[in-house]
Structures are given as C-alpha cells and as structure tokens.
Amino acid sequence: METLLLAAAIFAVILGLAGILLPLLPGTPLVFAGLWLLAWLDDFSRVSVTTVVVLAAMAVLAWLVDYIAAALGVRRSGASGLAVLGAALGVVIGLAGGLVGVIVGPIAGAVIGEWLARRNHVQAARAGLAAGLGFLLAIAAKIGIAFTMLGIFLVAWLA
Q1: Diameter over CA atoms, the chain
Q2: C-alpha distances in angstroms, 26 versus 32, 47, 62, 99, 115?
Q3: pTM for the whole thing?
Q4: How confident is the model at residue 26 (pLDDT cuts 50, 70, 90)?
Q5: CA pair distance 73, 138, nearest whole angstrom
Q6: Total tally of structural domains belonging to the chain
Q7: 112-146: pLDDT as tens digits
Q8: What is residue 35's three-state secondary structure?
Q9: C-beta atoms surrounding 73 within 10 Å
Q10: How far, in Å, CA of 33 to CA of 117, rounded?
Q11: 153 is in which domain, residue-wise?
C-alpha cells in the first residue's frame, strides 16, 4: 500500500506541474498534495509540519495569482474599473472553456469592460493586451512558485 501511495504522490507532483499550463488541472494544489503525501508517508521526520505549512501557503499564493494577475495587468495599463472587473470575471467564466477560455476570458472581459466604460476601441484593445500579458506573467509566477516549493521540499528532505 505504501508503494501505491508513493507512486500517487509522485504522480500528483508531475500532474501538478503539467497543470500549471493546463487550465483544467489544479497545478500548484496538486504539487502541494503530492509533497504533503510524501512528507506524511515519512511521518514528517525529514520534512517538518512547519515546512508543509509554508508549502501550503505558497500553493495558496500561486492559486491567487491566477485570479489577480489579469486584473492587475489591466489596472496598470490605466484601464477603467469596468475593465478590471471584466478581466476578473473573464478569468472565472473562462475556466469553463478550458485552455482557450482561460486565455481568452480575461482578455475579452477586459476589452468589453473598457469599451463599455469609455467607448474607445484603442483603449479597449490596450486593456485586452494588458490582460493577456497578465495571464503570461501569472504562468511564469506559478512556475516559479511551484519549483520553489519543490526546492524547499528537496532541501528539507535531504537535510
């Protein structure tokens, strides 16, 4: 049974790393679940509960990055509050549309929100571009957080 759980933990980490890029998989929560299971299988003797709590906080941070990155990108571009709201709603609605929805949702939401607020096509396009860049930065941040989680876990495991 322990071998099966070990395989499940490793599979969860690998699947979680893939999930950072694939929107239907909860990337960093799966990475965390796999790391937690590995620590638990070892009775937290190599990786302490404190370390696992730090990893959990990092997983929550990575999860939040998805929801705030597009909105912050739009806000920094000087877009209206409706564009920021549109980008945030676009992320949530886009989750139902898979990979295309997650990419297009915040962009479309920002464009629609900005157009409704100012009726300016150029500014609406700028808001959409900012939402798209926010999405790309979110992926980069999540990759960084996930690999930092792995590094912390490995240092604790090997120490």
Answers
A1: 62
A2: 10, 23, 10, 13, 32
A3: 0.76
A4: confident
A5: 10
A6: 1
A7: 988 888 888 888 888 888 888 887 888 899 999 99
A8: helix
A9: 25
A10: 42
A11: 2-158
